[in-house]
Amino acid sequence: MGRVYIKKEVCIGCHLCELYCQLQHSRSTDLIKAFKRESMRPSPRLRVEEKEAVSFSVRCQHCDEAPCVYACLSGALTRDSKTGLVKVDEERCIGCWTCLLVCPIGAISRDTAEKKVLKCDLCQGEDVPACVANCPNEALIYVEVQDESHSTEGKVIAMIQ
Amino acid sequence: MTKAERVKYLIIGNSAGGIGAAEAIREVDRAGAIAIVSSEPYHAYSRPLISQYLVEGRPLQRMMFRPADFYKEKNIQAILGQEVTGLNIDKHNVKLDDGRSIIWEKLLLATGSSPIVPNIEGIGLKGVFTFTTRDDARAIYKFLNQYHTEVRAVVIGGGLIGISATEALVKRGVKVTIVEMKERILNTILDEEASFLVEASLNELGVEIINGHIVSRITSFLPGRATGIALDNDRPIPCEMVIVAVGVQPRTKIVSETGIRIDRGILVDHHMATSSPDVYACGDVAEAYDFIYDENRLTPIWPNAYIGGRIAGFNMAGLPTEYQGGTSMNAMKYFGLAIVSAGILTPPDDSYEVISEKHGHVYKKVVLKNGLIVGVIFSGDIEKSGIIYNLMKNRVNVDTFKQALIADDFGLISLPEEIWRPLLEHTSPVTPSLATSDKQPEKMAIGDLGLVSGR
User: Fold this and answer.
1) Secondary structure (3-state) at B363
2) d(CA A34, CA A28)
3) CB contact (8 A) between residue A149 and residue B431
4) A114 pLDDT above the threshold of 90
5) Residue, of A145 and B43, whose pLDDT is higher
6) CATH 3.20.20.70 applies to domain B128-246
7) Closest partner residue to B303 among A98, A104, A115, by Cβ?
8) Which of A9, B44, B211, B250 is 20 to 30 Å from B68 by CA-CA measure?
9) ipTM of the assembly?
10) At residue B83, does pLDDT exceed 50?
11) What is the largest CA-CA distance in chain B?
12) Which CATH superfamily is domain B5-45+64-113+250-323 in?
């Protein structure tokens, strides 16, 4: 798993990260089809914040100690023990929104039609998340993190009596 | 007599707290024997999902809080459907229903709470239910299936459980009347404005809400069966069923003769440890630190149970970890209306400051005291409420930017850079690097969610 870092100094607030996130999570992954023909316009799993000349995008940080995972009522939010990714099992999500209330950066959004939560999955299957790959200004950086730092199961201390 | 079993960790309770502890223990100690005992005969399930059971008869498999192979995968002995009949602290021993005896090194009491059932006339009649367990939901589900005509229900208590039951019953086509003792429903977790929002949406669905009254007795014109209730003003309300949802109380009976300190719940310190060495408690049964009130309180909610269990588990496994504290916080979604709330919603005196905003379906309110957030309600537009909740939890002084908190365009960018930058740079919180060695682990350094180190 990697992590996305922001460089607000060069973010110009163009929202392309948002657009490519939508595209990546659309059914067709075709720009015209996704935005013009799919019955539900895909929702982005990140948001761009702007205030005067400052802007940056916000997405799930896949926290080491992820409050959303601990607060999840149904067990839908889990940490993947192999990749370290905080992921949501859409089958099990009941749309109770408890995770929204505990996320310190407000990175979880609602799919109100499906009554499920939406969040960044770091574009599983891609080398680099779509937001990073398509940022025209390199305001987003993707950094692979060491294997050991996220998977708690892998760093267990055997405390055998 | 059967020989006593021995485990390193014994967890009584198989819900959020117990599971949180077991998972934490396994992050630290892969080998120590763990046993979980529960009086309920089911794989750990998500209690809030009993509403879905009532609506659609959702099978256990789709209510499970963890995958089917959870106990096997974590190497946990699950002893389900067994009541604990005796607890001997000095001998580190518990006795079970079936005569078994288990000796433990560390014990976690995660026994939860049970519904308060007022001792009123007719309470034992058929058609009277509580609504906190899967078995409760199943009993109501079966009861409703007997009827082919409209069923009328009286829900006693307009708290979270009562309203959840109401929502499920309405979806089953039941005509519901709620009787709330106080002046408005959800009065402990919402302010007046938000309570009325919920009341209005319930009324629209044909639910009658009677505030400011109590049910004085359950009446019966058929042998053994509830056929109505009478209010304290003698007004009769005919119904086929009654749901008792006046609150829950910690299940502390197990410790009543052990000398373990109890107030309203089992008192625990910042390590979730009880007054007795090697015994921990968490969840609904525990009275743990509340960071808003700066004292120990009951906060019988699922997320606090899980996090409390997680802290207890780390400490039980020898990794000193502190509980940052929890407070009452809830996310509600009744009939499409999304509301989140936490902390103090109705200021008790004028030393508090309230800032609020209301337009259309959007309602936002933040309660402050001395520049610190002590309460929050967001309705409609709830996505950024977590930012506020965490400012409140981390005791951040928001005085210089408080007006921004309720603005439509509120976001991390509304905060001073020294607050938002660390949140987006993975600089905090940091998990400990528990190198694989035989060295005793250092204190855990986790900042943000209930875990704080080295205070």
Assistant:
1) strand
2) 6
3) yes
4) no
5) B43
6) no
7) A98
8) B250
9) 0.91
10) yes
11) 71
12) FAD/NAD(P)-binding domain (3.50.50.60)
DSSP per-residue letters across chain A? -EEEEE-TTT-----HHHHHHHHHTSSS--HHIIIIISSSPPPPSSEEEEETTEEEEE-----SS-HHHHH-SSS-EEE-TTT--EEE-TTT-----HHHHH-TT---EEETTTTEEE-----TTSSS-HHHHT-TT--EEEEE--GGGT-GGGG------
A149 pLDDT more than 70: no
pLDDT tens-digit series, residues B43-82: 999 999 999 999 999 999 999 999 999 999 999 999 999 9
For B104-155, how does the pLDDT look when each residue is reduced to its tens digit (9 = 90+)?
Answer: 999 999 999 999 999 999 999 999 999 999 999 999 999 999 999 999 999 9
Give residue limits of the domains in chain B. Answer: 5-45+64-113+250-323, 128-246, 338-424
Q: How many CA atoms lie within 13 A of B36 on its CB side?
A: 30
B338-424 matches B128-246 in CATH topology: no
Q: Which architecture characterizes domain A1-59+122-146 according to CATH?
A: 2-Layer Sandwich (3.30)
Q: Which residue of B has its CA nearest to A159?
A: B29
Tell me which fold the domain B338-424 belongs to. Enolase-like; domain 1 (3.30.390)
What CATH number has the domain spanning A62-119? 3.30.70.20
CA dihedral A41, B386, B377, B213 (to 10 degrees): 100
Contact B52 A94 (CB under 8 A): yes
- Strands B372-379, B451-452: pairing is unpaired
Stated pTM of the model: 0.92
Task: Report pLDDT for B317.
Answer: 98
Q: Are A92 and A65 in contact (CB under 8 A)?
A: no
Domain layout of chain A by residue ranges: 1-59+122-146, 62-119
Q: How far apart are the first and last CA of chain B?
A: 47
Find the residue in A nearest to B449 (Cα). Answer: A67
Lowest mean pLDDT among A7-11, A24-28, B150-154, B265-269: A24-28
- What's residue B210's pLDDT? 98
- Residue B430, CA distances (Å) to A63, B88, B153, B453 in order: 9, 39, 50, 11
Residues of B in contact with A159 (CB under 8 A): 28-29, 31-32, 317-318
Is B331 close to A63, i.e. CB distance below 8 A? Answer: no
Sequence-distant (≥ 6) Cβ neighbours of residue B114 within 8 angstroms? B132, B248, B249, B251
Residue of B nearest to A153 (CA): B27
**Token pair 């999570």: residue:** A25
Joined tokens for residue A112: 């109100």
